[in-house]
Fold this sequence. Notes:
- 41% of the residues lie in helices and 24% in strands.
- It has helices spanning 8-24, 26-40, 55-72, 93-106, 151-164, and strands at residues 53-54, 77-82, 88-89, 113-120, 124-131, 140-143, 167-173, 177-185.
- Strand 4 and strand 5 (124-131) form a beta hairpin.
- The longest helix is centred in the middle third of the chain and has 18 residues, at 55-72.
- By secondary structure, it is an alpha+beta fold.
- The protein has a single domain, classed as Histidine kinase-like ATPase, C-terminal domain (Heat Shock Protein 90, 2-Layer Sandwich).
- It has five helices and eight strands, in the order ααβαββαβββαββ.
- The strands form two sheets. The protein has a six-stranded mixed beta sheet with strand order 2-4-5-8-7-6. Strands 1-3 form a two-stranded antiparallel ribbon.
- Helix 1 (8-24) runs antiparallel to helix 2 (26-40) and helix 1 (8-24) crosses helix 3 (55-72).
Amino acid sequence: MVVQEIKPRFIYDILVRVGDIFRRDPKRAEGIINNLVEYLKFNPEMTDFVHPIPFEEEMDRVLAYLKIEQARLPNLNVELQLEDMDFYIPALTVQHFVENGIQHGLENKTGGTLTIKTFKSESGHSIIVQDDGKGFSNEMSISSENQGSRFGIANVINRLQRMVSGDVEIVTKPDVGTTVLISVPFSKE
């Protein structure tokens, strides 16, 4: 399944955090609620899972999600270096790797940085999602040829290949973090 259920614990944590913040900084609490509304108004039934969407639209969802996570995890640092945004990508591609980076790499760590970079290479558009979290349990590399048994990753890679002839490479090291490189060739239009 492409769209993951929004976990009740995620909503609960956000609402508790907003309640605490509201007493000290009502404007900030209002901003968090607005980001939560923006994130929740995403309707999976309305999303086109057959055709790619503009990368900018994907990033709007990702940024709303990141602002919410930063309220929940105040030591989460987010770095953005978005040099290239004029291309298409399957919906929830970047979102999947950002969520994984936070939930599996950074959530139980004091502090930590999630970085998203985009740039043009000779062959196309490149997206890097990187965290300095705990990495996977075994040092490994995952690519389209070696997807392992990770169904969510395999699903994202399959959609990326099918819709835009894209590819993913994941390199992870314990206690160092994970780097995901998403490659999208230039459009042949």
